[in-house]
Each structure stands twice: as structure tokens, then as C-alpha cells.
Design a protein that fits this description.
About 50% of the residues lie in helices and about 10% in strands. With about 525 residues, it is of the alpha/beta class. The protein has four domains: about 170 residues, 3-Layer(aba) Sandwich (Rossmann fold), CATH 3.40.50.300; about 60 residues, Helicase, Ruva Protein, domain 3 (Orthogonal Bundle); about 120 residues, Zinc Finger, Delta Prime, domain 3; about 120 residues, 2-Layer Sandwich (GMP Synthetase, Chain A, domain 3), CATH 3.30.300. Strands 2-3-4-1-5 form a five-stranded parallel sheet, covered by helices on one side. A hairpin with a 2-residue loop joins strand 8 and strand 9. It is elongated and about 95 Å long.
Length: about 525
């Protein structure tokens, strides 16, 4: 006999075998006992949670020959129950709406519905992925679904109930299937391993259940694959090798790199993962869940159930979460989420992963990441700045200028050139909010105690800067970048400064600056040599 996959071999044969869906099974049992079975049901929920299986169990309960009518406990051994289990009973019709979605298929179905059952008590029509039917097909099904023959029952199954028309929803009893809790999935996998004689580790079963994310079919299929890989044993190493995942130890090592802001260590770390055959997408998926658990632990809500981990792993989460703050974890979760979205269309998975991790470790996160990165602590004099301060690259030094005219030199003394620290802060602000960075392009700044006095050359620029400081997000953006670059928090003060040197020279000569000159002045650029 050909090998039978584990998820088919251990498919539930009674309502008692279904795990995680007690609200559905209990309601169907009560309806069968009372003889009040609805003519149409809609089973909604994630894949692999028991929708089609429950539909077949309902068909068994309606057609079991050991009882005089519908029964909540089908025998499983009569001809009807065996035929349904083997998917060969003509009176139980299963349709895949993904391939039978048009109006012609529904018209054919309406013709078949009128026929009496061949030898079973009722005819049951199970339509899977019903949301993929066309609008015309739904309209053709409406009347039949509302007033079917006495011998016909419908069970519609879908993973996307929002796409099912309201006119269909109102004609069905809806049941929402839930993701199966992790402990129940682990228990089922353990029973299967015991029945099959597999040598399994509890941690390996927990890893499979965690990655299955409440999908029982995925969990059993993964178990089957791991057993085929390892030759009968189920270990954490085998699970990670098959799925290309990371595992807790690798995830904690990665978040330790992020906590230390060691962006330079990200690239050899990713290279090692790739060389080991791990999937970048799978690693990011697990990292997203891992960062979520760190945030939960940081907020003081860590439990074994909430983190889906054992007591020792929960302790590690609590310990490592102390190295992060809530804003950084929230921003990191947003950055990893965007990287996962990008992987859907970008084939350079390794580069996307490296950039995402380096941006978190290096502190490149901006307000566009949902939360601004926290300000760095003061750097002692002479100490090397932390890695995340390297996120802002100083502007390249311009070539040595020609000696300025005497009047321009005097003007420069009145309007000093912006310091290197202020230029770096403006560049970081420009990366986060280009419009605000452009407004600060002509400004200068001088430290005065715990204050940073920012001078702008005109009233228009002063008004814009004041508006930005009145905005909480704008002030937080400026002050956080200033604190990073200057190494300590400073209070921002504004003043109206002198006109830039070139503009003063043009005003004195009666000339008018072109748009190009203004841009070059703002960003301290120069014209090409052949442009006169």
C-alpha cells in the first residue's frame, strides 16, 4: 500500500478528535441532537484549522446508517461513514471554488441538487474556498441557497469571509474557526509521535507548533518532513535544518547584537545564516515574533502562555528586554515588518535582511519607522562614539576655497560657518524629514551652556523653524538628533541671524541670486568648472 501522509492518516474522524474548535463542535452536536440542523453553514477561519474536516464530520452525522436520523456521534464503521471517510460517497459532493468558480459550474450544481440521494439519507454539498466564486456565480446560487430541497445541505468554507457577499452570509449560519493554541498542537504532535514510535524532543515539538502558528495541518506536515529528514527522530536541529529557521539561541544572539548597536557584526552574522542554508524570510518572521516577545517582557507581561515558551526561555526574554526601551522595540518591529513586505517583490533577500538589521543595530531608525530612535547617552571626552552615532555621515569637506574678499571675510565673522556637529545634525534631520532639513540648510548653531542657539538668515526661515519646534514631533526629531551628535541633550533656542555671505555680496553689487545659486548656497555646493 502507498504511504499515507500523517495529516491524512490522523485526520479527525469524530467531533471529539477535533482540537481547538470546541465552540463549533458543541453547537453542531446540540443541533444534531435537537434535530435543528440548518440547511446552510459557513465555516470561516485560517487554513488548517478543521473547516473541511468538520464539514465531512457533519456529513457523517447526517448520513450515518446506524441511527434513525442525524446523530451527534456517527459510528464511523457503517457503509456511509466509511464511504465518506474514503471520499467516495456520491451523495457528498465536494467542490473547489478556485477551479469551479463560474456561473456555468453553479448552474450544473443547481441541476444536480434537484436529484434525490442515490442511497444515503441526504445530499451534502461542500464548497471550499467559496470566496473565489465570481459575482455572477454567487447570484446564481442565491435562490438555491435560500430555499434548497429538503434532502440538500450546504457547507461553505473560506479563509476570507470578507469577500463573500452579504446576501450569501445572511443565508448561512456562520462559524469562525480559531487558530489552535500551541499547547494543544504540541499535545497532538506528541500523541502522533508516540503512536508512530518516533523519538522526539519536547523542545522540537514546541518549535514546530510555534512556527505552525495555530495551523494543525502545517504542524503535522512539518513533523512528517522532519521525520523523513532525520530518519525517525525529531530534534530541534532537524526542525531548523528542514524549515531554515533560526531557533531561540540564534534569535537571542541576534538581538544581543542589536542591543549592543554592533551594526558591523550584522553582516558576518547574516553570512553565517545564509551559509547554513537558513531562509532570510523565515529568520525575519521569527525575529518579528521574537521582538514582540521582548516588548511583552519589557512591559512586564511575560508569561509562558503569552510568550509561547518554557520558563527558562521566559527568563531569558525578561533579562534581555532590560537592554532595550519600548520605543526602540516598537520601531524595530516596524522595520522588520517592512522588510518582510519588501521580500515579496525584491529578490535580493540577503541584502534586504542585512540593511534591515543594520538599520536597527546602527540606530538608523527615523520617525518614518513609527517611533524615533532614542537619544544616545553622553559620550565621555576622548571616548569612541557608539556605533549608532555613525548613522549620520558628515558632509565631505569642500576643497580649499580661494581667499575671500575683504568684505566677505568680515561678513563671515559676523555669520560664522555652521559647526561640523550642527551639519551632521542637519543632515540626519534631512534624512528623516527633507523639508525641515532644507529649511535648516542655511542655519548656524552655537552652544551656550545647556542651550543650542540656532541662527537663521531670514524671517521666513525663522517662522518655519518656530512652526517645526511648536510641533511635538518636529521638536522631538530635532532634539533627538542634536543629542545624538552633540552627546548630550540641549535646549533649542532660535534667533534671526545675518544674511549669508554670498547673498550679502550680491545685494551690495545689485545682483540677483538665481535659483541655482540659492540651492548651492543652501547645501554648500559649487558650480562645475566649465559653468561661468
Amino acid at each position: 500500500m502507498a504511504y499515507q501522509s500523517l495529516y491524512l492518516k490522523y485526520r479527525p474522524q469524530t467531533f471529539d478528535d477535533v482540537i481547538g474548535q470546541d465552540h463549533v463542535c458543541q453547537t453542531l452536536r446540540n443541533a444534531l441532537s435537537a434535530g435543528k440542523v440548518a440547511h446552510a453553514y459557513l465555516f470561516c477561519g485560517p487554513r488548517g484549522t478543521g473547516k473541511t474536516t468538520s464539514a465531512r464530520l457533519l456529513a457523517k452525522a447526517l448520513c450515518c446508517l446506524r441511527s434513525d436520523g442525524p446523530t451527534p456521534e456517527p459510528c464511523g464503521v457503517c457503509d456511509a461513514c466509511v464511504a465518506i471517510r474514503e471520499n467516495r460517497l456520491l451523495d457528498v459532493v465536494e467542490l473547489d471554488a478556485a477551479s469551479n468558480r463560474g456561473i456555468d459550474e453553479v448552474r450544473n450544481l443547481k441541476e444536480v441538487i434537484g436529484y434525490q440521494p442515490t442511497w444515503a439519507r441526504y445530499r451534502i454539498f461542500i464548497i471550499d474556498e467559496v470566496h473565489q466564486m465570481t459575482k455572477e456565480a454567487f447570484n446564481a446560487l442565491l435562490k438555491t441557497l435560500e430555499e434548497p430541497p429538503d434532502h440538500a445541505f450546504f457547507v461553505l468554507a473560506t479563509t476570507d469571509p470578507q469577500k463573500v457577499p452579504v446576501t450569501i452570509l445572511s443565508r448561512c449560519q456562520r462559524f469562525d474557526f480559531r487558530r489552535v493554541p500551541m499547547p494543544q498542537v504540541i499535545g497532538l504532535l506528541g500523541r502522533i509521535c508516540q503512536a508512530e514510535g518516533f523519538d522526539c524532543q519536547e523542545a522540537a515539538l514546541a518549535t514546530i507548533a510555534r512556527l505552525a502558528d495555530g495551523c494543525v495541518r502545517d504542524a503535522i506536515t512539518t513533523l512528517d518532513q522532519v521525520v523523513a529528514y532525520s530518519g525517525g527522530s525529531v530534534t530541534v536541529e532537524a526542525v531548523n535544518a528542514v524549515l531554515g529557521g533560526a531557533g531561540f539561541d540564534v534569535l537571542f544572539e541576534l538581538t544581543d547584537i542589536l542591543a549592543r548597536h554592533a551594526a558591523q557584526e550584522v553582516f558576518p552574522f547574516v553570512e553565517r545564516l545564509v551559509s547554513e542554508g537558513r531562509s532570510c524570510a523565515q529568520v525575519l518572521e521569527e525575529l518579528l515574533r521574537h521582538l514582540r516577545n521582548l516588548l511583552v517582557a519589557r512591559l512586564g507581561a511575560a508569561t509562558e502562555t503569552g510568550l509561547e515558551a518554557d520558563a527558562e526561555t521566559v527568563r531569558r526574554y525578561v533579562e534581555q528586554s532590560s537592554h532595550f526601551d519600548e520605543a526602540t522595540l516598537a520601531a524595530a518591529i516596524g522595520r522588520v515588518g517592512r522588510a518582510l513586505e519588501e521580500l515579496r517583490w525584491n529578490g535580493q533577500h540577503r541584502i534586504v535582511t542585512e540593511v534591515a538589521l543594520a538599520s536597527i543595530a546602527g540606530g538608523f531608525l527615523t520617525t518614518q519607522t513609527a517611533v524615533a530612535a532614542p537619544a544616545a547617552p553622553p559620550t565621555p571626552h576622548g571616548a569612541r562614539p557608539p556605533a549608532h552615532e555613525a548613522t549620520v555621515r558628515p558632509a565631505p569637506e569642500p576643497p580649499d576655497p580661494e581667499p575671500p574678499p575683504e568684505d566677505e571675510a568680515g561678513a563671515s565673522a559676523e555669520n560664522p560657518v555652521a559647526s561640523d556637529e550642527w551639519q551632521r545634525a542637519v543632515l540626519a534631520i534631512h534624512n528623516a524629514r527633507p523639508a525641515l532639513g532644507a529649511q535648516l540648510g542655511q542655519s548656524t548653531a552655537i552652544e551656550s551652556g545647556d542651550e543650542l542657539i540656532v541662527s537663521v538668515p531670514g524671517s521666513f526661515q525663522l517662522d518655519k523653524l518656530m512652526d517645526a519646534l511648536d510641533d511635538p514631533e518636529g521638536r522631538a526629531l530635532i532634539e533627538s538628533n542634536v543629542a545624538k551628535v552633540y552627546g548630550r541633550p540641549l535646549t533649542i533656542k532660535t534667533e534671526l541671524g545675518a544674511v549669508p555671505p554670498k547673498a550679502r555680496q550680491q545685494a551690495a553689487t545689485g545682483g540677483r541670486a538665481s535659483a541655482v545659486d540659492l540651492v548651492l548656497e543652501m547645501f554648500e555646493g559649487s558650480r562645475p568648472l566649465d559653468d561661468h
